[in-house]
Design a protein that fits this description.
Distance between the termini: 11 Å
Bound molecules: zinc ion
Number of domains: 1
Order of helices and strands: EHEEHEEEEHEEEHEHEEEHH
Structural class: alpha+beta
Shape: globular
Strand content: 25-35%
Number of strands: 14
Helix content: 10-25%
Number of helices: 7
Radius of gyration: 22 Å
Oligomer: single chain
């Protein structure tokens, strides 16, 4: 098992509604809010912890694959924690303990073997967790906007939520701190490639991202918080030579979605050496809102297309096997 390269997936997480990812109320002064958002202790700025994003993507994929409740404790009893079978796509992509021994290869089906390797005693192991999700911090634009909207040094709004007493109909307001709608966070995810087959895991990741857009991130999702969209998505591939030689030319842009100027939307598809350009609306100057709408439709389309792309074939030429 040897590292062949890394896919770097980056872009922005745009909050369509207020976002609440809970921090700890500890250390807050008395009378402070009891539902604070998590903040970077150095800058005091709210952020999206990589662990929150990763955990949500994992659970969405587990539900999709019917893996929920399939986890097993060491004595074999079922748990309702994450799947820990050690050989499914979810486990390989999101992680199980690195030396997690599964079964002898002959006890598994062909399709279950594609991401695994055998250890010296013939048990299968999934190897290192393929996916790394970095913490997502607010973009420069968003920091400026917060200052305009909320005032200097204030990055969040307080939303009052009411629990209604069913007998007396008395309202019991509860303050909830959240990042305002319209905020953007810069995300980065990395998928390590050890096997040729690992590239297929990208499909699962894009499926999870598409599922998240119709689900929610953070707390109180069913009450309207945490609706997010992925924007300005870019996928790069860095073969292992990139890290050895430091040669930036080894890095390969696989795909990127961006608005250029006001009216042009461009999609690069350089894995085939070609560049595709999509003009938003020919000959017509678009307002930014219209542009954003078209961009959205394309990203939505691409997220579903990404999950259909045969990454194995597309990028074979970049791998040294
Ligand atoms: Zn599993």
């Amino acid at each position: 098992m040897k590292l062949k390269g890394k896919y770097i997936i980056s872009g922005k997480i745009y909050c369509k509604t207020g976002l609440h990812i809970g921090g700890t109320a500890e250390g807050f002064e008395i009378g402070g809010i009891d539902n604070p958002v998590i903040r970077d202790p150095l800058t005091d700025l709210p952020y999206i912890p990589g662990s929150s994003l990763k955990g949500k993507l994992r659970s969405l994929l587990e539900w999709k694959e019917g893996k929920f409740g399939k986890g097993r404790k060491s004595d074999g009893t079922p748990t309702f924690g994450p799947c820990n079978c050690g050989h499914c796509e979810v486990c390989v992509l999101f992680g199980t303990p690195p030396r997690h021994r599964v079964k002898k290869p002959e006890e598994l089906e062909e399709k279950e073997l594609k991401f695994l390797t055998a250890d010296e005693e013939g048990y299968t192991i999934s190897g290192p967790t393929r996916l790394t999700v970095r913490d997502a911090f607010p973009s420069e634009d968003t920091k400026k906007r917060w200052e305009q909207w909320l005032g200097e040094g204030i990055y969040t709004e307080i939303k009052m939520e009411n629990a209604i007493d069913r007998v007396t109909s008395e309202a019991n307001p509860r303050p909830m701190e959240r990042v305002p709608a319209g905020s953007e966070f810069e995300f980065q995810m990395i998928v390590d490639i050890y096997h040729e087959n690992d590239k297929k895991l990208l499909k699962s990741l894009f499926t999870a991202m598409a599922l998240l857009e119709d689900s929610s991130l953070g707390g109180s999702g069913t009450r309207g918080h945490g609706r997010v969209e992925f924007r300005d998505i870019e996928v790069k591939f860095r073969p292992v030579e990139y890290y050895i030689t430091g040669d930036g030319k080894k890095e390969k842009l696989v795909i990127s979605v961006k608005i250029e100027g006001e009216k042009r939307l461009i999609v690069y598809h350089t894995s085939k050496g070609e560049k595709k350009e999509f003009l938003l609306k020919e000959g017509k100057r678009l307002t930014t809102t219209e542009g954003k709408k078209e961009e959205r439709e394309l990203i939505k389309h691409l997220l579903s297309e990404f999950s259909k792309i045969d990454w194995g074939l597309e990028c074979r030429s970049t791998l040294s096997t």
